[in-house]
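Hi U.,

Before I forget, here's the chain from the pilot set. I'm dumping it here mostly so it's searchable later in email.
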Amino acid sequence: MASETTGVSGLAARYAAALFDLADERRILDEIASDLRQLRAMVQASPDLLRLIRSPILSRDQQSKGIEALAEAAGLSPLVRDFLAVVARNRRLFAVPAMIEAFLAELAARRGEVTAEVTAAQPLSEAQLAALNEQLRRSVGSGLVLKLGSRMVDGSIKSKLQRLQLAMKSIA
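Structure:
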């Protein structure tokens, strides 16, 4: 018998895959990922929003109106607004956090990114960060984005290309 968690993750993966395909087709993956990160932060910061998406007591109409007002006020893209409207209409808002994680995981996999979590007893020095970055790069390969608390070390191909593009613009 499948567990409830497996059911939610399967449901979330299907919805996330549909959103991913639409965003990819429209070439707005980064915009959608940014909106979803913003939405994830709002859900994590607001017990009221969490209650809105999880409450079985609220009607479909109440949930739809609430999530629509939130999406508009937050300035989310039309695709994310439409996606949330469909999710609310289908009474699946409870799975939105898992949908966000599934979308972001698919995007990271597509880009060849791997997530590493490092825990240290004290803040790392720049030399320690560089050594850790190099060790992880050797273990994992390129495309490394390392997050240590609030600090981020980005060695991904995309950011290297962006830095190169900025350097070329400043020379011209």
